[in-house]
Amino acid sequence: MKINKILYLLLALFTLTFSACDPIVDEQHLTNSTDVAGVELVSTQSTPGGNKITLNMTTPGVTGYWDYGLDKALTNEVTFVYPIPGKATFTFVGTLGAEFFTKTIDVQIDQLDTPLDQDWYDLVGTNTAAGKTWVFDGTQGSGRFWWFMSPNGSAESAMTAWWNAGDCCAPSDALGKMHFDLDGAANYNHYETTSATPTKGSFKLDIKNKQLTIMNSKMLGSAAGNADGVYTIVSLEEDKMILYLSNSETYGTGWTFVFKPE
Prior knowledge:
- The protein is mostly beta strands.
- The chain contains two helices and 16 strands.
- The protein has helices spanning 2-21, 118-124, and strands at 41-45, 52-57, 63-67, 72-73, 77-81, 86-95, 100-109, 132-136, 147-150, 177-181, 187-191, 199-206, 211-215, 230-237, 240-245, 254-261.
- An eight-stranded antiparallel beta barrel has the order 8-10-11-12-13-14-15-16. A four-stranded antiparallel beta sheet has the order 4-3-6-7, with no helix packed on it. The protein has a three-stranded antiparallel beta sheet with strand order 1-2-5, with no helix packed on it.
- It starts with a helix and ends with a strand.
- This is Lipoprotein.
């Protein structure tokens, strides 16, 4: 009888010991602080219809970033100079607390009264709506270096030629041209020859990261280009543009493209 009482006592002690070791779980569930309709996006312009724009997401408890086409800003507020007249749509991507969302705001730009970064004028000309045409800075047999294989991995070696392909084996559009303008959008046209019907696309000039991206069309000399259409800007001046690929999908090496205005 005494043994049974001792066993019951030991069992009770074990039960208390193990139950005391059970973790205390404080379950917290994320909840939304508002809904998408409750997220307020505000735009202001330095002058009425001007191209210096400030975008602000003013709703407390909401976090995210602005995608304004030229770049992304990992803040609720961003100010920038926009290069394209007309109606522009900008996007805020954020979280309500428990779910992610996107919301857009439209801004009307009627005048480019704040000067753009010089790279824009170098690429599309001072008359941004009319735009600017570029051609290769050389022809087959000229001995010039305008479309050539270069070391891969770094734009610093872009002007080191491994093989001057343009002097013997020019691309099919060697005598073509390409046109950039900002007439209501970032417009791009590729011409296989000077008289060919253009392949229309668009472009993105990323000044901060020194990149030029061609979308829904192709760059001159894209026989050595890559499918994503992203080129590193080695140099962009009024009278010359040098682009580079660190790894051409066609050749598996670097590749350099040298252009001049038409």
